[in-house]
Design goal:
The chain is mainly α. The chain is about 80% helix and about 0% strand. Helix 1 runs antiparallel to helix 2 and helix 4 packs antiparallel against helix 5. It is flat. The two termini are about 35 Å apart.
Length: about 140
């Protein structure tokens, strides 16, 4: 199977898996979600084996990938801004929910969960920063 055909097959499979996730979660059918997970574990080895050829598999019709340092810098700044804003929103919502624990005690656990998610985001961000500073 050539790389272009494999890339199209992966795109179709990915779309199908996403549809299974969404339909399974909306309908509440755990078997659809389980099928999506099984299909995901089937395509992970294929992607891993072809990881060096991913650019060739997903090229556009003109077979030209235009990417330079400016694109990487813009993407890095945008992702840092998105992460910072997401963390701020999660923390502020968590603070508001925990502050309202006397009025809405059933939501206190959700507030603490948001704090845990924010802490996890921060740990992942800093660990990946350390990894990439050492790598490059």
């Amino acid at each position: 199977m050539n790389l272009k055909t494999l890339g199209n097959a992966l795109k179709i499979t990915s779309g199908f898996i996403t549809a299974l996730w969404v339909v399974g979660l909306i309908v509440g059918n755990i078997s659809l979600v389980a099928l999506a997970i099984v299909m995901l574990f089937v395509i992970i080895p294929v992607v891993y084996v072809k990881r060096d050829k991913l650019d060739e598999m997903f090229k556009g019709k003109d077979d030209l990938i235009i990417e330079d340092e400016r694109t990487h810098l813009i993407n890095e700044k945008a992702s840092n801004m998105a992460l910072g804003i997401s963390l701020a929103i999660i923390i502020y919502v968590g603070v508001i929910i925990v502050a309202l624990r006397n009025s809405y005690p059933q939501l206190t656990l959700a507030g603490y969960t948001l704090f845990a998610v924010a802490a996890l985001f921060s740990v992942i961000y800093f660990l990946s920063g350390i990894y990439y500073r050492r790598k490059y």
